[in-house]
Amino acid sequence: MTGDGGFVAERDSSASGGETEITLGVLEAVHGNSALTQRSAARELGIALGLANAYLRRCVKKGWVKVRQVPPNRYAYYLTPKGFTEKSRLTAEYLSSSFKFFRRARAECDELFRRCAARGWRRVALCGTGDLSEIATLVAREHSVEIVGVARGGLDVEDERAAAHRASPYLMELGPVDAVVVTDLKAPQGTFDDLARLLPGDRILTPPMLRIARPGVDGERAA
Q1: Which class would CATH give 6-97?
Q2: Distance between CA 127 and CA 206 in Å, rounded?
């Protein structure tokens, strides 16, 4: 891959089946670090500098990333609302198309529920319906953990008062819960951000496969 232009980069990455993964990686890198550089993006993603440059330019052209020059002679990258939506869509696409999905989901849910059991957290809610929540429900039976309810993901609220109001039918009315596990495949980051308005960060558990960034909550970022 020469990285001499967007067309070459896209053609080569598509041939290797990695276009979705690279684009998703770029959007995640920008979301997690506004001080990102082309060189640090290439290093983080394990790809050539020219390829990282081509994908960043493509994301800017698509309106997913905004770039601004800041002194001294460098650029700052920001994820736009459109880019946030695309990141969520690509996450769902990537996970759904992976034949390793069930095995990975089971392993990661198993680890989360082991942590819950070790901490004495018995009442756990899930936020997000679908394949991941069904797997989590099955895995929870292998531990001393009770799934007290499954809430839909994507609260999509503007402030804390609205969040509490919208959450009440499916979280607040479940009674006391020790923790909530994000199982939303469609918009995992948005669901986590909304839950963070309601609950302490350490009580919101996120499977690493969802690639949720947690800056400002507990300093943790999923791999």
Answers
A1: mainly alpha
A2: 10
pLDDT at 131: 87
Q: What is the pLDDT of residues 145-169, one digit of tens each?
A: 999 988 876 544 444 433 333 444 5
Torsion of CA 79, 82, 85, 86, to 10 degrees: -80
Task: Say if CB 19 and CB 13 are below 8 A apart.
Answer: yes
| pLDDT tens column, 26-69 | 898 888 887 788 888 888 888 888 888 899 999 999 999 998 87
Q: What is the CATH number of domain 101-221?
A: 3.40.50.2300
Write down the pLDDT at residue 164.
Answer: 36
Predicted model pTM? 0.58
Q: Is 80 in a helix, a strand, or coil?
A: coil
Measured between alpha carbons, how far apart are the two ends of the chain, in Å?
26
pLDDT at 154: 52
Question: Which residue ranges does the chain devote to CATH 3.40.50.2300?
Answer: 101-221
Report yes or no: 38 and 53 within 8 Å, Cβ to Cβ. Answer: yes
> Is there a contact between 32 and 189 (Cβ–Cβ < 8 Å)?
no
**Range(s) within the chain of domains with CATH label 1.10.10.10:** 6-97
